[in-house]
Structure formats: C-alpha cells, structure tokens
C-alpha cells in the first residue's frame, strides 16, 4: 500500500441521449492490483471503462490516473500515459494483417522505441498470432481476434490494461488460457482493470471487485469475499 491509487474514479456519469448509462459511479485501482467490474447486461460496465480510457467523454465526475486528472482526455492521449483499453468484441482492423495490427498499435510515442521487443513479447505470449502474422485479422477466429486485441494493447506498453469482457465467446479452454495470461501480465507489474461476466474466474483473480447495477456501484469488496456473497450470486444468476 503506497498512498494514492493508480486509477481513481469519482462521481462518473454518462448519458446516451436521454438514457443514463452511468451515474455517480466511483471505484479505484491500486498500482499492481487486479480490479474487476462485474454486473449484469446493461449495468454500465462498458460505458464506464470507455469513459476511463477516453473513448467517451463523461457528463460528470473525475478520473485520476497516477495522480493526474485525465477526465475528458482523448483516448490517444490516455494511451501515451500508459492506459490501454482492450475493447469488447472484434474491434481489430479487419483488413490489416495480424502483424500490421500490432505495428499500428505499437507506433504510439511511449512504446515506439520498444517496438521490436514488444512484438517479440506478443508473439511469444501468443504463438498462434505469430503463425498467422500475414493473415488478415478479419479471417481469424473469435478467440484469435481476442488475442490480437490483447496483443494490440500490450504493444502500447501499458501501466494499466483495461480488458472489456476478454473471455466473451471463447471456448472454456481458451478462457482458462486468457485468465492465466492476465495473471502473468499482472505478475509483471501491469495493473489490471477487468470487466467480466465470467464471475467465478474473475472474482478468484481480483484483489477487489465492484458490482455495478444501473450505472452505479452497489457493492464492493475483495474478489473472494464477493464470490461467497449470496446476494452477488443471486443477482448474477438472475441475469443468466
Ligand atoms: P453488457 O454486459 O451487456 O455489455 P454493460 O454493463 O457493459 O453491458 P453498457 O454497454 O455500458 O453496459 O450499457 C449501459 C446502458 O447504456 C444500457 O442500458 C445500454 O442499453 C445503454 N447503451 C449503451 N450503448 C448505447 C448507445 N450507443 N446508445 C444508446 N444506449 C446505449
């Protein structure tokens, strides 16, 4: 415990037109930790992390990263500070090859000097991507595209890696692989903020977790503590 958290979110709010997706949402992530946002469909998890990463501009609230107010900072500037979002779904450049996708991501200023080292690292973590480096990203399987999306995040040399539903659509064996990988990245010192519906594996790994409901944090605690919480189980199962 060394003072201020790496990420601190207070009073966050976001509206899609007249639909309020996030309101008075607050949470934090200690440097070197794994923090999870959980909750049912439409709880506001994706909107929250998109605000944090600068993909969406919040209506209210403050976001502090490494002691600096980054509220409203656009995504390309947030990346330069070491904050990388791996978006939900297949948001890689479909028409570019695997290799080109990684190169484009690695061209940010903060990671440019480490480009070849980062490429080696990603290809070592994901031999499958190395095999398919010349293949168009659009022709990869869902799991391979998810690996590529994570690889793109790693190419930016992140201090905070935000993962939005990294296990979505993956086979059980790949889910286990992805969670193991996230644990390894965290062990290397990357702080992790993860949005997941995969309750068991997520809470087992998270130091701290926040339950979102209707855009607000309704409960928080240690990962394992929440895993044993009947109310969390009931709410979660109610969604499935
Ligand atoms: P899921 O787990 O289903 O992905 P989530 O917790 O990530 O859900 P969000 O995607 O942040 O939730 O959505 C929060 C609310 O905002 C939902 O009610 C959703 O319908 C609404 N919403 C999200 N995106 C839009 C949009 N582009 N336009 C209008 N409403 C939106």
**Total of helices:** 10
Fraction of residues in helix: 25-40%
Number of strands: 10
What is the structural class? alpha/beta
What hetero molecules are bound to the protein chains? adenosine-5'-triphosphate
End-to-end CA span = 36 Å
Order of helices and strands: EEEHEEHEHHHHEHEHEEHH
Strand percentage lies at 25-35%
The largest sheet has its strands arranged as: 6-7-8-3-9-10
- Overall shape: it is globular
Largest sheet features: 6 strands, mixed
What is the CA-atom radius of gyration, in angstroms?
A: 17 Å
Low-confidence runs: none
Nearest-integer average pLDDT? 93
Verbal overview:
By secondary structure, the chain is an alpha/beta fold. Helices cover 38% and strands 25% of the residues. It has ten helices and ten strands. It has helices at 45-53, 75-81, 98-105, 115-125, 127-131, 142-155, 172-187, 199-205, 223-227, 230-239; strands spanning 7-16, 19-29, 34-38, 60-65, 68-69, 83-86, 160-164, 191-195, 208-213, 216-222. A six-stranded mixed sheet has the order 6-7-8-3-9-10, sandwiched between helices. Strand 4 and strand 5 (68-69) form a beta hairpin. Helix 3 runs parallel beside helix 6. It starts with 6 loop residues before the first strand and ends with a helix. The model has no long low-confidence stretch (mean pLDDT 93). Bound molecules: adenosine-5'-triphosphate.
Question: What labels describe this entry?
Answer:
BCAA_Transport_ATP-bd_LivF, alpha/beta, 240 residues, Amino acid/amide ABC transporter ATP-binding protein 2, HAAT family, binds adenosine-5'-triphosphate
């Amino acid at each position: 415990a060394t003072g201020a958290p790496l990420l601190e979110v207070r009073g966050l709010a976001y509206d899609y037109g007249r639909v309020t997706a996030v309101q008075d949402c607050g949470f934090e992530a200690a440097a070197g930790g794994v923090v999870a946002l959980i909750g049912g469909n439409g709880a506001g998890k994706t909107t929250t992390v998109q605000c944090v990463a600068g993909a969406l501009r919040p209506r209210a609230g403050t976001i502090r990263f490494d002691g600096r107010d980054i509220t409203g900072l656009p995504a390309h500037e947030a990346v330069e500070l070491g904050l990388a979002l791996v978006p939900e779904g297949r948001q890689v450049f479909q028409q570019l090859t695997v290799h080109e996708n990684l190169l484009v991501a690695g061209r940010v200023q903060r990671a440019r000097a480490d480009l070849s080292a980062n490429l080696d690292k990603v290809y070592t973590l994901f031999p499958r991507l190395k095999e398919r480096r010349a293949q168009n990203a659009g022709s990869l399987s869902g799991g391979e595209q998810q690996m590529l999306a994570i690889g793109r995040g790693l190419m930016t040399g992140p201090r905070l890696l935000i993962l939005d539903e990294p296990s979505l659509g993956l086979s059980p064996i790949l889910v286990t692989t992805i969670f193991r990988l996230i644990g390894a990245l965290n062990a290397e010192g990357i702080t992790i903020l993860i949005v997941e519906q995969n309750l068991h594996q997520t809470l087992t790994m998270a130091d701290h977790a926040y339950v979102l409901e209707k855009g607000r944090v309704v409960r928080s605690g240690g990962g394992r503590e929440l895993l044993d919480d009947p109310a969390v189980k009931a709410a979660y199962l109610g969604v499935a």
